[in-house]
Structures
1.
Amino acid sequence: MTAIAPYVAAMCRPATDSVFDENAKVLPEKLDANIEEFCRCIRKAARDHGARLVVFPEFALTGYAMMDNDGWIAASVSFPGAEIDRIAEVARETNTYVLVQAAEKHEAFPGRYFLSAGILTPEGTVGLVHRKNYTLSLRTSPVDIRTLFAETLGEDAFFPVLDTPIGVLGVSIAAEVHWPEAIRALTLKGAEVILNPIANAEGVDYLQRPGAELARAVRAFENVAYLGMTNIAAGAAPAAVYDYNGGQIGAEADAGLFTLATIDIEALRKARAAGGANLLAQIQPSLHEDIRALPLWPDDALHYHPATNFDQLMDIEKQAWARMCAMGRGTMPSDSE
């Protein structure tokens, strides 16, 4: 097996603009300018810093606007597609892997959009597409249409990983990292580097819970994996990279445009193989019940139509917890009806 030399990963925070006008319609010239900025940043990361991996934030390509399902479909891109292909060509030109997040439309799922992230390869192709699973949002989550999603894209599409010459890469979008199950699913498939694009104006958690500040370091530690997060340029939380021991690494460059960190895959693999500290290998499956048997969030709950408001999602959550309490796996508050 050929050893993987340490390489530079660049968490990028480009100064892109919203592509939406006052009516939440896409302005093509704004989107074109953002794509050009992405391409400039990739070239700069590769040329000036020798980066092999460049990661862009959530919503950095388009910005965010309050829109209904149809509005987001109109603002969505495809992986691959005209917009993504332009960025993929620069990934090919610079011999880099590039993560781009955007609202995605897919011909197999008409009338819906996903919040997705694609890893573009040095061959100029889309190597992986991750559709955001966890966190409440009016986009379609794969579990909303689980049966159709699995029939169309396969079971591996829920938590895909990409085996590359720079290590096995996985993706977790925004607050998905708050669920240990999501990252564990990736690392038990072999993921060594988790890429985490976020778009948070005030911090790393829109609910401002202090525990969220710890989540990324803990996910890296408990999975013996690198985790790289980058935030939108206007966001208060800076980009951060954590090594496989949960320690923060890297430094800012180019006035905060990049946070650069060295990824040493061979050191990670030695740590996993050495014994004594591989928390993945030490998992004891026979001690744990299968959580799929518990009446938590249901499959196909939004099979017929995407959610139209957050109350629908909150009701699903409340009903799931009520079912758990009814079987003695939790307790409702004393003042509940």
Note: The CA atoms of residues 198 and 231 lie 5 Å apart.
2.
Amino acid sequence: MSIVFAKGLKKYYKDFLAVRGVDFEIHKGECFGFLGPNGAGKTTVMKMIQCFMPPSEGTLEVFEKDVLKYPSEIKEKIGVMPQENNLDPDLSVEENLMVYANYFDIKKKKARERAEELLKFVEMENLKKSKIEELSGGMKRKLVLARALINDPELIILDEPTTGLDPHSRHNVWDMLKFLKSQGKTSILTTHYIEEADRLCTRVAIMDTGKIVEIDSPKILKEKYGGDLEEVYLKITGKKLEN
């Protein structure tokens, strides 16, 4: 089943063409990655998929629904882990999840049960009464991931999920994302960490200057071009991928 289908997808910001007619399809159960430097168009594509901004041209369907016609129905089935830790500092760890559950009309009893499940999943059940300022960077990222899962989404959007984390915290988040993948969840990941894409993604779309220049599994790309995924990126784009 196709979860996301894009054909000739473009996005203009006034006269600037940020996404230049990309084609891709994401299947149920995949972890699909967009790999590229800042400014490649990755985040813009993600925002169109999550119905945060409309496409300028082309076709974009999520759950076989047109994003321009059915944004509300699509948003109900999506969980988003944004690049920034936009948690409410005035609320506790648990309250951040409970308040977010309101956006999906989840009843209070169910929301509390779901929050407890998710805090256990991200190994933060002992911190539910803690304030956000008391959390480390890694804990904040794990809480943002838990929040993205509060509505038990069919599609999880992960925008640079481990940016700014130390290696231990990064691997911790990777383990959680691998578990979600093993449970059959579909996810879309943007990253500029080569190792992250290599470890997590079923397939990657390599982007440069608003275009997709190659799509395939990391394994096939490495076999096709030779070397590791970083060398593949260099051969395809002529650029190094800067963190």
Note: The chain is about 35% helix and 25% strand.
